[in-house]
Amino acid sequence: MFTAIKDWWRGFQDRHPELSKFLMFFVLSNGVTVLQLALMPIFRWAFDSFTGLVGVDFQVLPVGSNVDGSTYFMFDYAAGALPEGGGGLAYFLAVQITLLIAQVINFFLQRNITFKSNTSPWVAAGWYALAYVVITFVAAAAQGFYKAPIYDLLIGMWGGTGEVVADVATMIINSAISFWVFYPIFKLIFRQTPDAAAVAAPTAQAD
After folding, report:
1. Which of 12, 50, 99, 106 has the fewest CB atoms within 10 Å around its CB?
2. Helical pair 160-189 and 17-50, crossing angle rounded to 10 deg
């Protein structure tokens, strides 16, 4: 049965090369998202339980004002536990460490399985790192709009359980942003070039 599935998939790839790449990208990205959903609450619990970082304010890069006149920070993690505070440095580190682990894994999966790239991994890694930084800033800026309302609502409804659900919801939103932005970037940095031996073979036969 497994062999039949592999054969069907190879035929599907031959008939629909771009669609098959997108589907594989979708499957692997969702697998990485599941990993993020598992890691995020664990890191939050560890930082909250074993460090005092939840009480350390992390509000940087002011980029404007909220409707109430307060400063809008690109990275807005006010000291204090959610929903009264913003989770502090503990929340920031939990989010960023989770994303970093997930994206490193995603890099190798997408490069080797989805796009089967044979270009320099170091060049691709450099562009990937740059894209990761840019997307991190964009996702952080967007989070200022939805993080507080989600935590207020869900913690108000379900208490501690609501906080875990809010962790999952915010991570899914982060992952969705990354998903739609990364696919066109991957198509650019994970290219396939003709193999040197394959190019030389017809020339040798012609001689």
Report:
1. 50
2. 140
Q: Where are the domains of the chain?
A: 9-200
Q: Give the Cα separation of 189 and 126 in Å (integer).
A: 10
Each residue's pLDDT tens digit, 76-92:
899 998 878 889 999 99
Nearest-angstrom CA–CA distance, 89 and 56: 6
Q: Which structure tokens are listed for 109?
A: 């999966």
C-alpha 99/C-alpha 138 separation (Å) is 14
For residue 83, how many C-alpha atoms fall within 13 Å in the half-sphere facing its CB? 20
**Predicted confidence (pLDDT) per residue in 148-162, tens digit:** 889 889 888 888 888
Q: How many residues does the chain have?
A: 207
Element (H, E) at 59: strand 58-65
